[in-house]
Amino acid sequence: MARYLDRDRIALVAALVAPPAVAAALLPLRDSLSNTSVALILVVIVVAVASAGNRLAGALSAISAAVWFDFFFTEPYQRFAISKSADIETDVLLLVVGLAVSQLAARARQLQVVAIRDAVYLEQIHDTATLAQTARSPDTVVDHVTVQLTRLLNLRGCRFEYGNLTGHPPRLEQDGTVVWGRKRWNVDRLGLPGEEVELRTFGNGRFYGRFMLDPTPGTIPTLQARLVAVTLADQVGTALDTTADGS
Fold first, then answer.
1. What's the rounded Cα separation, in Å, for the pair 202 and 200?
2. The pLDDT of residue 134
3. Residues 51, 106: contact at Cβ < 8 Å?
4. Could you name the CATH architecture of 136-246?
5. Can you give the chain as a three-state secondary structure string?
6. Residuewise pLDDT in 10s, the chain (247 residues)
7. Hey, what's the torsion of the CAs at 135, 136, 141, 142, to 10 degrees?
Protein backbone atom coordinates (compact mmCIF):
# COMPACT_ATOMS: atom_id res chain seq x y z
CA MET A 1 0.00 0.00 0.00
CA ALA A 2 2.80 2.42 0.87
CA ARG A 3 4.35 1.75 -2.52
CA TYR A 4 1.20 2.93 -4.30
CA LEU A 5 0.98 6.03 -2.08
CA ASP A 6 4.57 6.95 -3.00
CA ARG A 7 3.77 6.34 -6.65
CA ASP A 8 0.73 8.62 -6.43
CA ARG A 9 2.78 11.41 -4.83
CA ILE A 10 5.35 11.20 -7.61
CA ALA A 11 2.56 11.28 -10.20
CA LEU A 12 1.10 14.44 -8.62
CA VAL A 13 4.46 16.16 -8.89
CA ALA A 14 4.79 14.97 -12.50
CA ALA A 15 1.30 16.31 -13.24
CA LEU A 16 2.47 19.81 -12.40
CA VAL A 17 6.00 19.60 -13.81
CA ALA A 18 5.81 17.42 -16.93
CA PRO A 19 3.37 19.47 -19.10
CA PRO A 20 5.25 22.80 -18.80
CA ALA A 21 8.58 21.02 -19.23
CA VAL A 22 7.45 19.28 -22.43
CA ALA A 23 5.78 22.45 -23.72
CA ALA A 24 9.00 24.40 -23.14
CA ALA A 25 11.02 21.68 -24.89
CA LEU A 26 8.74 21.98 -27.93
CA LEU A 27 9.18 25.75 -28.17
CA PRO A 28 12.00 25.59 -30.76
CA LEU A 29 9.58 23.67 -33.01
CA ARG A 30 6.73 26.13 -32.61
CA ASP A 31 7.01 27.37 -36.20
CA SER A 32 7.21 23.88 -37.70
CA LEU A 33 4.67 22.02 -35.56
CA SER A 34 0.96 22.71 -35.81
CA ASN A 35 -0.88 23.44 -32.59
CA THR A 36 -2.88 20.26 -33.12
CA SER A 37 0.32 18.22 -33.11
CA VAL A 38 1.49 19.95 -29.95
CA ALA A 39 -1.86 19.26 -28.29
CA LEU A 40 -1.62 15.57 -29.18
CA ILE A 41 1.87 15.34 -27.69
CA LEU A 42 0.59 16.91 -24.49
CA VAL A 43 -2.30 14.42 -24.38
CA VAL A 44 0.28 11.62 -24.46
CA ILE A 45 1.97 13.19 -21.43
CA VAL A 46 -1.37 13.38 -19.63
CA VAL A 47 -2.01 9.68 -20.30
CA ALA A 48 1.46 8.76 -19.03
CA VAL A 49 0.94 10.68 -15.78
CA ALA A 50 -2.56 9.25 -15.24
CA SER A 51 -1.36 5.70 -15.89
CA ALA A 52 1.38 6.11 -13.31
CA GLY A 53 -0.81 7.84 -10.73
CA ASN A 54 -4.46 8.29 -9.90
CA ARG A 55 -7.44 10.32 -11.15
CA LEU A 56 -6.32 13.48 -9.35
CA ALA A 57 -2.90 13.32 -11.00
CA GLY A 58 -4.55 12.78 -14.39
CA ALA A 59 -6.91 15.73 -13.93
CA LEU A 60 -4.11 18.04 -12.77
CA SER A 61 -1.93 17.07 -15.72
CA ALA A 62 -4.80 17.72 -18.15
CA ILE A 63 -5.41 21.19 -16.67
CA SER A 64 -1.68 21.91 -16.59
CA ALA A 65 -1.31 20.85 -20.24
CA ALA A 66 -4.16 23.15 -21.32
CA VAL A 67 -2.75 26.11 -19.36
CA TRP A 68 0.79 25.78 -20.72
CA PHE A 69 -0.42 25.14 -24.26
CA ASP A 70 -2.19 28.49 -23.99
CA PHE A 71 0.91 30.18 -22.54
CA PHE A 72 3.47 28.89 -25.06
CA PHE A 73 1.60 28.11 -28.27
CA THR A 74 -1.31 30.53 -28.69
CA GLU A 75 -1.04 34.20 -29.60
CA PRO A 76 -0.25 36.42 -27.80
CA TYR A 77 2.66 34.23 -26.68
CA GLN A 78 3.84 34.10 -23.04
CA ARG A 79 0.49 35.37 -21.86
CA PHE A 80 -2.53 33.53 -20.49
CA ALA A 81 -4.76 34.81 -23.26
CA ILE A 82 -5.96 33.48 -26.63
CA SER A 83 -6.79 35.70 -29.58
CA LYS A 84 -7.72 33.12 -32.25
CA SER A 85 -10.96 31.14 -32.09
CA ALA A 86 -9.21 28.08 -33.58
CA ASP A 87 -6.68 28.11 -30.74
CA ILE A 88 -9.52 28.40 -28.23
CA GLU A 89 -11.15 25.30 -29.69
CA THR A 90 -7.84 23.39 -29.65
CA ASP A 91 -7.16 24.36 -26.03
CA VAL A 92 -10.67 23.38 -24.92
CA LEU A 93 -10.40 20.07 -26.77
CA LEU A 94 -7.00 19.45 -25.19
CA LEU A 95 -8.53 19.96 -21.76
CA VAL A 96 -11.63 17.81 -22.42
CA VAL A 97 -9.77 14.99 -24.15
CA GLY A 98 -6.99 15.10 -21.57
CA LEU A 99 -9.49 14.82 -18.70
CA ALA A 100 -11.40 11.98 -20.36
CA VAL A 101 -8.34 9.97 -21.35
CA SER A 102 -6.66 10.52 -17.99
CA GLN A 103 -9.69 9.10 -16.18
CA LEU A 104 -9.70 6.05 -18.44
CA ALA A 105 -5.99 5.51 -17.87
CA ALA A 106 -6.36 5.87 -14.11
CA ARG A 107 -9.26 3.40 -14.14
CA ALA A 108 -7.19 0.90 -16.10
CA ARG A 109 -4.40 1.22 -13.55
CA GLN A 110 -6.89 0.70 -10.70
CA LEU A 111 -8.23 -2.46 -12.33
CA GLN A 112 -4.67 -3.72 -12.75
CA VAL A 113 -3.97 -3.15 -9.05
CA VAL A 114 -7.18 -5.00 -8.13
CA ALA A 115 -6.22 -7.91 -10.38
CA ILE A 116 -2.76 -8.14 -8.81
CA ARG A 117 -4.26 -7.98 -5.32
CA ASP A 118 -6.79 -10.70 -6.17
CA ALA A 119 -3.99 -12.95 -7.41
CA VAL A 120 -2.03 -12.42 -4.18
CA TYR A 121 -5.10 -13.20 -2.07
CA LEU A 122 -5.79 -16.37 -4.04
CA GLU A 123 -2.18 -17.47 -3.62
CA GLN A 124 -2.38 -16.96 0.15
CA ILE A 125 -5.54 -19.06 0.41
CA HIS A 126 -4.06 -21.80 -1.78
CA ASP A 127 -0.79 -21.92 0.18
CA THR A 128 -2.64 -22.18 3.49
CA ALA A 129 -5.00 -24.87 2.21
CA THR A 130 -2.02 -26.90 0.99
CA LEU A 131 -0.22 -26.49 4.30
CA ALA A 132 -3.36 -27.51 6.23
CA GLN A 133 -3.41 -30.79 4.30
CA THR A 134 0.29 -31.58 4.60
CA ALA A 135 1.45 -30.13 7.95
CA ARG A 136 2.13 -32.68 10.68
CA SER A 137 0.99 -30.29 13.40
CA PRO A 138 -1.88 -27.76 13.31
CA ASP A 139 0.41 -25.38 15.20
CA THR A 140 2.37 -25.00 11.96
CA VAL A 141 -0.79 -23.82 10.21
CA VAL A 142 -1.66 -21.51 13.10
CA ASP A 143 1.78 -19.88 13.00
CA HIS A 144 1.60 -19.55 9.21
CA VAL A 145 -1.82 -17.87 9.28
CA THR A 146 -0.75 -15.60 12.15
CA VAL A 147 1.95 -14.15 9.90
CA GLN A 148 -0.45 -13.94 6.95
CA LEU A 149 -3.09 -12.08 8.95
CA THR A 150 -0.54 -9.61 10.27
CA ARG A 151 0.53 -8.71 6.74
CA LEU A 152 -2.92 -8.93 5.16
CA LEU A 153 -4.61 -6.59 7.64
CA ASN A 154 -1.47 -4.52 8.41
CA LEU A 155 -1.65 -5.43 12.10
CA ARG A 156 0.70 -4.44 14.89
CA GLY A 157 0.41 -7.96 16.22
CA CYS A 158 -1.60 -11.17 16.09
CA ARG A 159 -1.85 -14.18 18.41
CA PHE A 160 -3.96 -17.31 18.64
CA GLU A 161 -5.88 -18.42 21.74
CA TYR A 162 -7.04 -22.03 21.93
CA GLY A 163 -10.62 -22.54 23.13
CA ASN A 164 -10.93 -19.15 24.80
CA LEU A 165 -13.94 -16.82 24.70
CA THR A 166 -13.34 -14.59 27.70
CA GLY A 167 -14.35 -10.94 27.49
CA HIS A 168 -16.39 -9.19 24.84
CA PRO A 169 -13.93 -7.76 22.30
CA PRO A 170 -14.96 -6.53 18.84
CA ARG A 171 -15.44 -9.49 16.51
CA LEU A 172 -14.66 -9.95 12.82
CA GLU A 173 -17.62 -11.86 11.39
CA GLN A 174 -17.82 -14.36 8.52
CA ASP A 175 -19.20 -11.70 6.15
CA GLY A 176 -16.25 -9.36 6.80
CA THR A 177 -18.14 -6.99 9.06
CA VAL A 178 -17.02 -6.11 12.59
CA VAL A 179 -19.47 -6.29 15.49
CA TRP A 180 -18.73 -4.50 18.74
CA GLY A 181 -21.29 -5.19 21.42
CA ARG A 182 -24.61 -5.12 19.62
CA LYS A 183 -23.56 -2.66 16.94
CA ARG A 184 -21.73 -2.94 13.67
CA TRP A 185 -18.49 -1.01 13.43
CA ASN A 186 -17.98 1.01 10.23
CA VAL A 187 -14.61 -0.41 9.21
CA ASP A 188 -14.64 1.20 5.75
CA ARG A 189 -14.81 4.65 7.34
CA LEU A 190 -13.13 4.21 10.73
CA GLY A 191 -10.79 1.28 10.19
CA LEU A 192 -10.62 -1.53 12.74
CA PRO A 193 -11.43 -0.62 16.37
CA GLY A 194 -8.68 0.69 18.61
CA GLU A 195 -8.40 -2.52 20.60
CA GLU A 196 -7.89 -6.21 19.89
CA VAL A 197 -10.40 -7.75 17.51
CA GLU A 198 -11.23 -11.45 17.70
CA LEU A 199 -11.51 -13.70 14.67
CA ARG A 200 -13.03 -17.00 15.70
CA THR A 201 -11.92 -20.31 14.24
CA PHE A 202 -14.35 -23.13 13.57
CA GLY A 203 -13.88 -26.58 12.09
CA ASN A 204 -16.91 -28.62 11.04
CA GLY A 205 -19.08 -26.38 13.20
CA ARG A 206 -16.92 -26.76 16.32
CA PHE A 207 -15.18 -23.81 17.97
CA TYR A 208 -11.43 -24.32 18.40
CA GLY A 209 -10.06 -20.89 19.27
CA ARG A 210 -9.64 -17.36 18.04
CA PHE A 211 -7.08 -15.06 16.52
CA MET A 212 -6.66 -11.82 18.45
CA LEU A 213 -5.90 -9.06 15.98
CA ASP A 214 -4.07 -5.94 17.17
CA PRO A 215 -4.91 -3.24 14.57
CA THR A 216 -2.50 -0.56 13.44
CA PRO A 217 -4.16 2.85 14.03
CA GLY A 218 -5.21 4.65 10.87
CA THR A 219 -5.25 1.64 8.55
CA ILE A 220 -8.46 0.57 6.81
CA PRO A 221 -8.38 -3.03 5.52
CA THR A 222 -10.70 -3.55 2.58
CA LEU A 223 -13.72 -5.81 2.76
CA GLN A 224 -11.96 -8.16 0.37
CA ALA A 225 -8.95 -8.40 2.70
CA ARG A 226 -11.24 -9.06 5.67
CA LEU A 227 -13.02 -11.85 3.81
CA VAL A 228 -9.68 -13.42 2.96
CA ALA A 229 -8.75 -13.21 6.65
CA VAL A 230 -11.92 -15.11 7.56
CA THR A 231 -11.11 -17.76 4.92
CA LEU A 232 -7.60 -18.20 6.32
CA ALA A 233 -9.02 -18.64 9.83
CA ASP A 234 -11.38 -21.29 8.48
CA GLN A 235 -8.38 -23.15 7.05
CA VAL A 236 -6.91 -23.26 10.56
CA GLY A 237 -10.21 -24.62 11.84
CA THR A 238 -10.08 -27.36 9.21
CA ALA A 239 -6.55 -28.33 10.26
CA LEU A 240 -7.50 -28.40 13.96
CA ASP A 241 -10.63 -30.43 13.25
CA THR A 242 -8.71 -32.98 11.20
CA THR A 243 -6.23 -33.43 14.05
CA ALA A 244 -9.04 -33.77 16.61
CA ASP A 245 -10.79 -36.44 14.54
CA GLY A 246 -7.54 -38.32 14.05
CA SER A 247 -6.61 -38.37 17.72
1. 7
2. 79
3. yes
4. 2-Layer Sandwich (3.30)
5. CHHHHHHHHHHHHHHHHHHHHHHHHCHHHCCCCCHHHHHHHHHHHHHHHHHHCCHHHHHHHHHHHHHHHHHHHCCCCCCCCCCCHHHHHHHHHHHHHHHHHHHHHHHHHHHHHHHHHHHHHHHHHHHHHHHHHHCCCHHHHHHHHHHHHHHHCCEEEEEEEECCCCCCCCEECCCCCEEECCEEECHHHHCCCCCCEEEEEEECCEEEEEEEEEECCCCCCCHHHHHHHHHHHHHHHHHHHHHHHHC
6. 444 446 678 888 888 888 899 988 998 888 888 888 888 888 888 878 877 777 788 888 888 888 888 888 888 888 877 778 877 887 787 787 777 777 766 666 666 666 667 777 778 887 888 888 777 888 899 999 999 999 989 999 999 998 877 888 999 998 889 999 888 999 988 888 989 999 999 888 888 999 999 999 888 888 888 988 998 998 888 888 876 655 5
7. 180
Closest Cα partner for 95 from 63, 138, 50? 63
Q: What is the pLDDT of residue 210?
A: 93
CATH 3.30.450.40 range(s) for the chain read 136-246
